[in-house]
């Protein structure tokens, strides 16, 4: 028995809708559990993208001396370490991770590290213009893994990023959720 073409489209639409419902159902549940387990941030995550982010993080970290710091990509390692040392922050607290090539991989590259350390809640630091995209990606990638974030924006004079960029990277985050591939090779930062 052969199905007419409109039935095939209905099936595909139903399958896609079902996957999205599963995704949308899992994330809020995992976020709620993480919030219960770790109501306060347990670490600081800074998304690289300019020296002002590392400088801000060094000052911010002085307020939370018990928290370890992760910087995902960003300025050269020696320069970043110097900024943290000048702020009186021990090298043992600072983890500089160079695996990320874009904002989506800022999150995907650190998941296993955070899970190994039982980190369920992080301060997420990035520039104000970049924060909407970072929050969208973090909600999908971190949320799906039971990690929550508290955003901390750094003021800047840059215009906000386009909704298209946010949509593109949110789509890549959903792709990662289902395939563990980010599509990083298809675009530039």
Topology:
Layout: H1 5-37, E1 43-47, H2 51-62, E2 68-72, H3 77-86, E3 94-97, H4 103-108, H5 111-116, E4 121-127, H6 131-144, E5 148-154, H7 163-179
Parallel strand pairs: 1-2, 1-4, 2-3, 4-5
Helix pairs in contact: 1-6, 6-7
Provide the structure class.
alpha/beta
- Roughly what fraction of the amino acids lie in strands? 5-15%
Specify the CATH architecture: 3-Layer(aba) Sandwich
- Largest sheet, spatial ordering of strands: 3-2-1-4-5
What is the CATH class? Answer: Alpha Beta
Per CATH, what is the topology? Answer: Rossmann fold
The structural domain count equals 1
Low-confidence stretches: none
Arithmetic mean pLDDT: 92
Distance between the termini: 49 Å
Radius of gyration equals 19 Å
Global outline = elongated
Helix content: 40-55%
Q: CATH superfamily membership, which one?
A: HUPs
Main sheet properties: 5 strands, parallel
Q: What is the string of SSEs from the N terminus onward?
A: HEHEHEHHEHEH
Total beta strand runs:
5
Domain DUF218: 42-156
Pfam family, one: DUF218
Protein name: DUF218 domain-containing protein
InterPro entries: Cell_Envelope_Assoc, DUF218, Rossmann-like_a/b/a_fold
Summarize this, please?
With 189 residues, the chain is an alpha/beta fold. It has a single domain (5-180), classed as HUPs (Rossmann fold, 3-Layer(aba) Sandwich). It contains seven helices and five strands.
């Amino acid at each position: 028995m052969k199905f007419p073409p409109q039935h095939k489209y209905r099936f595909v639409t139903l399958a896609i809708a079902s996957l999205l419902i599963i995704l949308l159902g899992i994330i809020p549940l995992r976020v709620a559990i993480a919030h219960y387990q770790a109501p306060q941030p347990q670490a600081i995550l800074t998304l690289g993208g300019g020296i002002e982010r590392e400088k801000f993080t060094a000052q911010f970290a002085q307020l939370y001396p018990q928290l370890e710091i992760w910087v995902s990509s960003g300025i050269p390692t020696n320069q970043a370490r110097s900024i943290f040392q000048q702020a009186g922050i021990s090298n043992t607290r600072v983890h500089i991770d160079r695996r990320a090539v874009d904002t989506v991989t800022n999150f995907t590259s650190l998941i296993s590290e955070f899970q190994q350390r039982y980190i369920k809640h992080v301060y997420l630091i990035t520039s104000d213009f970049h924060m909407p995209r970072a929050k969208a990606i973090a909600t999908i990638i971190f949320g799906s893994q039971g990690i929550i974030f508290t955003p901390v924006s750094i003021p800047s004079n840059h215009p906000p990023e386009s909704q298209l960029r946010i949509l593109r990277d949110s789509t890549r985050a959903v792709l990662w959720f289902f395939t563990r591939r980010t599509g990083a090779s298809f675009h530039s930062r």
